[in-house]
Amino acid sequence: MKTFSLIIVLLFGSLLVYCTLDFPSWGDPTAPASLHVSPRYIEQTLDETSVPNIVTAVLADYRSYDTMFETIVIFTAGVACIILLRTYQRKKQLGGMYRHVPTGITLRFKEDVQLPKDSKEFEHIDLEWVPYDIIIKTACRLIVPFSQIFALYVIAHGHHSPGGGFQGGVILGASVILFAISHNLRATLGRISERAVALLCGLGVFMYAGTGLICMIFGANFLDYSALAHLLPLSPVAARSFGILIIEIGVGIAVMAVMIQLYYNLASAGKHDEGL
Amino acid sequence: MIWQIELIILIAVVICGIGAIAVRDLLGAAILFGAYSFMMCLLWAIMGAVDVAFTEASVGAGVSTVLFVATVFRTSRRTKD
Question: Which residues in chain A have their CB less than 8 angstroms from residue B73's CB?
């Protein structure tokens, strides 16, 4: 069986490599794409949308419909992860591990205990015991805000430099994951709950599609942002640039939420109690 | 671009790709896959596709490696075959 699958893989691999020989070579000026498609965008993008980064303009304006469904694919991945992995267990685990913060002693209870409410002295920790490390916690506490600022910059500056909603959203999600790794899943769930993450997933896609619908209300095509000029004190060209920013923010929110969602479900095997 | 650097990175891509399939330790496979993504990111940057390189660096080398490691942590570390 193994040799059979190897033969199939090699056969199709060589077929694919053979087909790539028909492609125009990299940077070929006589390739069909370089003859009229690329020059059109290179010459007209700045005049039509006032966006210097042509890649962003093509992705979020000219090919906006495509990008919208890319976002929906990511949203679907988050939903599928919930459906496949999330388990709601009725029986709660008895007992648990607690750390007495002033002394650093770890306590394990075999039965349910009632700790004094709002006690700062005891901290609930995971059963798979991770040594308390002040260096890791402090370092991650320092890194997280800077990476979040950088992510916001990437989202907002996608018009002028490489970046945009996808990359910025992933960095935002990664900063939350970093927090979850350095502390624990319970602390992260206390800050960004499962419900909030699920709502943000939908909100991002809704912002994207809603912008398209607003454009339709003003009589333009779906996702033709120049119609936003009716709503805002902007010229139609500046409105296209502004519309790109709105949908980039929507994509960023959706991607961030899905990344956190995937991490929550994968790290805790769908139980949302204890993670890495 | 300097073709020697491209050649070295391409060889590293192939080695990482084959290694990620061949290695028995799934944690090692996840890390090798991250290295593969990073090398691909360098290749995209060399070819001038900076946006793609950025996406590859953040998604491929960053978050997906973390998700793989989290999954390995929750399941088993050894492959059956």
Answer: 267, 276
Axis crossing angle, helix A64-85 with helix A236-267, rounded to the nearest 10: 20
Tokens matching residue A127? 């059963």
Residue of B51, B59, B73 lying closest to A170 (CB–CB): B59
pLDDT band at A177 (very low <50, low <70, confident <90, very high): very high
DSSP H or E segment with residue A108: strand A105-109
Chain A residues whose CB is inside 8 A of the B47 CB are 26
For chain A, domain boundaries = 44-91+132-267
Mutate to test the interface with B, among A171, A176, A184, A260 (most CBs of B within 10 A): A171
B62 found inside a domain: yes
User: Beta strands A105-109 and A96-100: pairing type?
Assistant: antiparallel
Q: Please, are residues B46 and B20 in contact by the beta-carbon 8 Å criterion?
A: no
Number of residues in chain B: 81
Over residues A133-145, the pLDDT tens digits come to 788 889 988 999 9
Question: A177 CB near a chain B CB, below 8 Å?
Answer: yes
Taking the C-alpha atoms of residue A206 and residue A220, their distance in angstroms, rounded to an integer, is 19
Please indicate, yes or no, if residue B81 is contained in any of the structural domains.
no
How many domains are contained in chain B? 1
Evaluated on CA atoms B64, B69, B75, B81, the torsion sign reads positive
Domain that holds residue B57: 3-74
Residue of B47, B58, B71 with shortest CB distance to A171: B58
Q: What is the pLDDT of residues B25-76, one digit of tens each?
A: 899 999 999 999 999 999 999 888 899 999 999 998 889 999 999 888 888 8
B54 belongs to a structural domain: yes
- Contact in structure between A211 and A223 (CB atoms under 8 Å): yes
